Amino acid sequence: MIFTKLVPGTFHWRFNALPRVLRSQWSVGSNNVIVRGALMRFQSVHGLATTGNIDGATWRTLFQAVVGHQFDPATYNYVYVSKSLPETAKLYANNALVYTALVNTGIAAAPTANGTYPVYLRYTTTTMSGTNPNGTHYHDTGIPWVSYFNGGDALHGFIRSSYGYPQSLGCVEMTFSSAASIWPRTPIGTLVSVQ
Q1: CA 58 to CA 61: how far, in whole Å?
Q2: Beta-carbon neighbour count of residue 162 at 10 Å?
Q3: Helices 33-45/56-67 angle, 10° precision
Q4: Any residues with CB less than 8 A from the CB of 13 and at least 6 apart, and which?
Q5: Where are the beta strands (DSSP E) in 106-178?
Q6: Is the CB of residue 81 less than 8 Å from the CB of residue 114?
Q7: Torsions phi, psi of 15, nearest 5?
Q8: Mean pLDDT of residues grouped by 10 in the chain (195 residues)?
Q9: How far apart are the first and last CA of the chain?
Q10: In whole angstroms, what is the distance from residue 185 CA to residue 181 CA?
């Protein structure tokens, strides 16, 4: 059996340019959404079930990665969605803002929930089906560049006549071009904050 103990030292937040909403959710030695997202990313890179929880297989693989000095081959990416008008999504990569897009979040009857969530499922293209607030059903095929982050809420491309204000049923819609730019940078475990 392997036992661990906390090592004394000083820990510093590495990415000071990221929005404060993310930093406020992290503290040393606590289980939080940042740790969950990091575990999901680690599990995905290593072909494990992406639960965001520590199990025996994850612990063994993590220990082997530390001993072998293995690091994630990708940058640390983060998406911040602002519901202030005009609504935007900002993509950060390793502490630098690399892309900004106008987006549409959820209407009052189907709002996009505030909070920080890890991407848990992705599609290059998919069909989205459900029920509109008025009780009718929708079945939209060919929805591109989809990154689910909170239940049925996802970052994705969607054709609208304009962007920048609430129009969706909870998702974060953007132009196909913007979705194609953001999607490659939102692997499993990437954190998305909506505020």
Answers
A1: 5
A2: 9
A3: 80
A4: 23, 26
A5: 115-118, 121-131, 137-150, 153-157, 172-174
A6: no
A7: -110, 80
A8: 62 85 85 94 96 95 93 92 98 96 98 98 97 96 98 97 98 98 98 98
A9: 43
A10: 8
